[in-house]
Amino acid sequence: MKGTSVWLMGGFMIVGVAGCGGSSRAAPSSRAYESEVGSRIGAVPGTMPTRLCADNIYAGQSASSIVRTPDDIVVGPVRFSTLHQATGVGLYRFATPDGPADGFKSPLSVSGTSGPWVAVRVTGDDDQVKINYDPADFVSGIPGDPKTGSPQVALQTAVACGNGVSGFVQYNGGFTWFHATCATVQVFGGTGHLLGEKVVPFGRVSCR
After folding, report:
1. Nearest Cα to 57, choosing from 169, 166, 137?
2. pLDDT tens-digit readout, 184-197
3. Neighbour-count burial of 74, counting CB atoms closer than 10 A to its CB (0-12 exposed, 13-18 middle, 19+ buried)
4. Of 155, 191, 186, nearest to 73 (Cα)?
5. Contact, 153 vs 119, CB < 8 A?
6. 142: which strand partners?
7. Which residues contact residue 16 at a Cβ distance below 8 angstroms, ignoring those fewer than 6 apart?
8. Interior/surface letters 179-205, b for 16+ CB within 10 angstroms, e for the rest
9. Does 135 score more than 60 pLDDT?
10. More confidently predicted of 105 and 36
11. What is the pTM (predicted TM-score) of this model?
C-alpha cells in the first residue's frame, strides 16, 4: 500500500498519482501566519466535525504497521501521509460553485496518545485551507468546497478504537484551498492542549 493517496468512488486507496498544477502565489511572511496562531482550542470534539472509529480505513494494535514515506509530515501523534507533496506533485484541481480549487489527499494516522480524542486545526492562513476527512464526500469522489469547509476536525484515537496506546487508527481525507498559502497545522489533545504544530505549504509556495 505504499505510494501517493488517491480519492476513489466510495473509498480510499494508496496508489501512484500524477497531480495537476495548483495556482501560484507569493507566500506570506512568517509573521503573517504566526501572529494568527493560537495554542488552545475549544471543547474536543465539541461542535466540530468528527471522524469516529467506524470511519477508519485501517487500524491495528502496533503503530509499526503504519506505512511511512519520506514525504510524510508528523505533527504530535498524527502522521499525514505524503503531505510534503502538497506543493506540487500530488495536487489536483477541481471545480466548485465558487470557482476552481486545489486539493491534496493525505490519509492521516493517529498513534501514541492515551486520550480518546485528538483535534486537527489549520490556522494562520486567513481561512484559506480547509480539512476534509468526511466519508460522505467519498461517495461521489468530490472533496468539499473550501468556502464551506471546516478548518478543524476531531478524530477518535487508537485508544478509543480498542487498539491501545501502542496501536493506531487511520482515516482517509485531505485538504482543499482556493489559493496557495502557508498554514500552521496543529494537533490538540482531548482536553484542548496543544500536542504539536508545524507550518506547511499548501500549493506551489515556499514557507521558509
Report:
1. 169
2. 999 999 999 999 99
3. middle
4. 186
5. yes
6. none
7. 3, 4
8. bbbbbbbbbbbbeeebbebbbbbbbbb
9. yes
10. 105
11. 0.81
Locate 180 and state its grid cell. Answer: 496557495
Q: Take residue 153 and report the three cell numbers written for it.
A: 476536525
3-state SS, the chain, equals CCCCEEEECCEEEECCCCCCCCCECCCCCHHHHHCCCCCECCCCCCCCCEECHHHCCEEECCHHHCCCCCCCEEECCEEECCHHHHHCCCCEEEEECCEEEEEEECCEEEECCCCCEEEEEEECCCCCCEEECCHHHHHCCCCCCCCCCECEEEEECCCCCCCCCCCEEEECCEEEECCCEEEEEEEEECCCEEEEEEEEEECECCCC
Pairing of strands 50-51, 152-156: parallel
